[in-house]
Automatic annotation (TrEMBL):
Its cofactor is FAD. InterPro entries: CBR-like, Cbr1-like_FAD-bd_dom, FAD-bd_FR_type, FNR_nucleotide-bd, Oxidoreductase-like_N, OxRdtase_FAD/NAD-bd, Riboflavin_synthase-like_b-brl. The keyword Oxidoreductase applies. The keyword Phosphoprotein does not apply. FAD binds at residues 104-106, 121, 123. Keywords: FAD, Flavoprotein, Oxidoreductase. It comes from the Eukaryota. The lineage of its organism: Eukaryota, Metazoa, Ecdysozoa, Arthropoda, Hexapoda. One of its GO terms (molecular function) is oxidoreductase activity. This is FAD-binding FR-type domain-containing protein. Residues 54-155 form the FAD-binding FR-type domain.
Amino acid sequence: MYDPPPEPPSESDCCGTGCADCVFDVYDRECARWRRRQTGGEGDRLRRDLLSATTHKPYRIVSARPLGDDVHAYTFAATPTAVGQLPVAYSQHVHIRLADGLSRPYTPVAVGDDDCSFGVLIKAYPGGRFTGRLLEMAVDDVVEVRGPSGGVRHDGYDSIVMFGGGTGVAGFVGLIGSLLDDNKCETLLRLHYSCKTLDGVLMRKELAGYAAYWNCAVHLYLTRERDWSRCSKSFWYNENITEGRISQDCMSEIIDKQQDLRTLWLICGNDDFNQYIFNSLQNKNIKQDHIQLLDNTIQYLKVP
């Protein structure tokens, strides 16, 4: 049975800190969605038995490889081995928990449709407890995964403008790819990706491939590239790269080009990056209803 009723979370699944999206609230929503699927003929073959938004399931590490700048690409697969597609929509996130209870949310950049696996990009911070312990683990070691949750609704928009900072670009890679795979999608996609150096651009090959589509543009901003003359010789054909951060002048130009379009503005980066982009959009009179973070909330951001 691929669509069992949601499993109730245990008391230990709740952190007890009053989260805005408590696992028990998630359980209530998942139950309501499950009832609608059962009564409304919305059944599908997604493997909801292998991934739950309310309880943790075992997943093994399939691969782990460094990408540079302390970023690692991990692939996790359901255990025991299974076949099918996980119920994950791009821009949603899953919670990965280690044996000692440490847990972090990550946005899948790829979801396997034949072996119930997903891939994420993980930034290893100096002294980070979670990443430090994860990096000590080996292929075939097992973690626990709960999800998916969050995500953004993008129906009804003429264009989607995305601002990614550092590993935050991971939240957009799968989303863009899934939209471009839809031959009926005519939504204009614009990604503005800020990172330190050209060597630090994550998934550069995938992004260059996306930029070849008529409705997708990718703009890179290199904030700490020291030797620009050397760096510029390594640009690929038709890459759009700017030296420096996403300035206020850049923001004005980006926003002005969207004046006649119904646009969804998406942000994914660290707290400072998110606040900067949010302030820039608000100062240009972009309505808050059309701005979203990939964790599905902008409540912690300060309105300028």
